Automatic annotation (TrEMBL):
Domain of life: Bacteria
Full protein name: Cytochrome P450
UniProt KW Membrane keyword: no
Pfam families the UniProt entry points to: p450
InterPro entries: Cyt_P450, Cyt_P450_B, Cyt_P450_CS, Cyt_P450_sf
Region Disordered: start-end pairs: 56-76
Claim: Oxidoreductase is one of the keywords in the record: yes
UniProt keywords, alphabetically: Heme, Iron, Metal-binding, Monooxygenase, Oxidoreductase
Gene3D superfamilies xrefs: Cytochrome P450
Molecular function terms from GO: heme binding; iron ion binding; monooxygenase activity; oxidoreductase activity, acting on paired donors, with incorporation or reduction of molecular oxygen
Lineage of producing organism: Bacteria, Bacillati, Actinomycetota, Actinomycetes, Kitasatosporales
Family of the protein in this entry: Belongs to the cytochrome P450 family.
Length: 407
């Protein structure tokens, strides 16, 4: 394996050989990314875990030495100049600590668990759309709408407005890489959320936006601007990630009939624990987030023997760390019952995924529903012909055509 496989032809379809090369030969290495920005890539599990929790690595793009952040090259797409929002993924303590504490009071694991029956009903409703047909695109018809409707429902977006979100999210997904489309979609979503927060202030309900408005901590409240940015980041962080969990996860299962049959049996017998460990294993084996979001050194530091200068961007390659043979036995094997699985798919440290409980519920509901409704589901394309959306941070399929005996 040679180093130039990185970001080249075929990389998005299978980045793992290139990651294995980096892990072995250059575990912390400065690379010029396709965007033109140079960043340190961290690929070994132990280094990755350490870097994710290192307070000397800031999430604030303002700490970047070059002007890249001003041109939007290191932020969330669509965030530029005066448009930059402050949210959990681009701030450090103490601001991060305050905002995270505030949102945690509204977004509790217990509140999320109570939401599970609604996510399952939603998954079934989406499956109704294609289960009688004998074929489907599981991205377009299932993995894509599921998280959008789930988060809209949780936030308290009225049902009649939820299709607007589906459209905006579609613009974000299908134009990813092209800034104009993403920028427009982000602007419309933010505008809508700002108005919704304003309207809800007068009539609080039991939804998450009402919870955000109500959230207070030592007498502090979120400003309307902060609440809108928070609602936006929940949508943004919880959408494409979940699409990819369902898409990459189903593909991994369809390519491994023995593991698929094992899960189908356990799921039919109501053995929930294999479903739980399957979701964790799919997050490890081919997780939705390839690279953790940007971090910037605030002082000189040494990472994996390399000297990182202040202002240097550092990207932790979660997908590489989660296949590190130093940490995982048989890392390239999908083992749905894997017990010892402290994967980094949801990150690590203070920015650990806030939405992990919701993502797990969605992953479980999606797998359980698809296995039940499509008993002999199989791939309807040569796996090598599948097309991938290889953004830098996320990795997922553009479509996943399947066939099955209609209901
Ligand atoms: C943070 C992964 C679903 C909300 C993160 C991070 C990762 C991640 C890796 C850390 C990024 C970093 O340290 O740079 C995932 C995956 C998901 C998923 C793999 C689905 C399978 C969700 C959902 C939501 C969500 C459903 C919300 C509804 C967030 C938020 C943060 C975050 C708000 C920022 C937390 C902070 O900075 O304190 N996620 N996520 N995520 N995620 Fe998720």
């Amino acid at each position: 394996m040679t180093e130039h496989a990185l970001f080249g032809e075929g990389f998005a379809a299978d980045p793992y050989p290139a990651y294995a090369w980096l892990r072995e030969n250059a575990p912390v290495r400065r690379e010029v990314l396709p965007s033109g920005v140079a960043a340190w890539l961290v690929t070994r599990y132990a280094d990755a875990r350490r870097a994710l929790a290192d307070p000397r690595l800031s999430k604030n793009p303002g700490r970047h030495r070059a002007a890249d952040h001003a041109s939007g090259r290191v932020g969330i797409p669509g965030e530029r100049g005066a448009n930059v929002m402050t949210h959990l993924l681009n701030i450090d303590p103490p601001d991060h600590t305050r905002l995270r504490r505030l949102v945690s009071t509204a977004f509790t694991p217990r509140g999320v668990a109570a939401f599970e029956p609604r996510v399952r009903a939603l998954a079934d409703r989406l499956a109704d759309g294609f289960a009688g047909r004998g074929s489907a695109d599981l991205i377009d018809e299932f993995a894509f709408p599921l998280p959008i409707y789930a988060i809209c429902d949780m936030l308290g977006v009225p049902p009649e407005d939820q299709d607007d979100f589906r459209d905006w999210a579609g613009m974000m997904l299908h134009t990813s890489g092209k800034r104009g489309g993403v920028g427009r979609a982000v602007k419309r979503m933010r505008g809508y959320l700002g108005e919704l927060i304003h309207r809800k202030r007068g009539a609080l309900g039991d939804d998450l936006i009402s919870g955000l408005i109500r959230a207070s901590d030592h007498g502090e409240h979120l400003t309307e601007e902060e609440a809108a940015a928070m609602a936006f980041i929940l949508l943004f962080a919880g959408f494409e990630t979940t699409v990819n969990l369902i898409g990459n996860g189903m593909l991994a299962l369809l390519r491994d009939p023995a593991q698929l049959a094992r899960l189908r049996r356990a799921s039919a017998e109501g053995e929930g624990s294999l479903l739980d460990s399957a979701v964790e294993e799919l997050l490890r084996y081919d997780g939705p987030v390839e690279l953790a979001t940007w971090r910037f050194a605030t002082e000189p530091l040494t990472l994996g023997g390399q000297r990182v200068a202040p202002g240097d961007p550092v990207l932790v390659v979660l997908a590489a760390a989660d296949r590190d043979p130093e940490r995982f036995a048989d890392p390239d094997t999908l083992d749905l019952g894997r017990g010892d699985n402290p994967h980094l798919g949801f990150g690590h440290g203070i920015h650990y995924c806030l939405g992990a409980p919701l993502a797990r519920i969605e992953g479980r509901a999606a797998l359980e529903t698809l296995l039940r409704r499509l008993p002999d589901v199989r791939l309807a394309a040569d796996p090598r012909a599948l097309r991938w959306r290889g953004g830098l941070i996320m990795r997922g399929l553009r479509s996943l055509p399947v066939e099955f005996t209609p209901e």
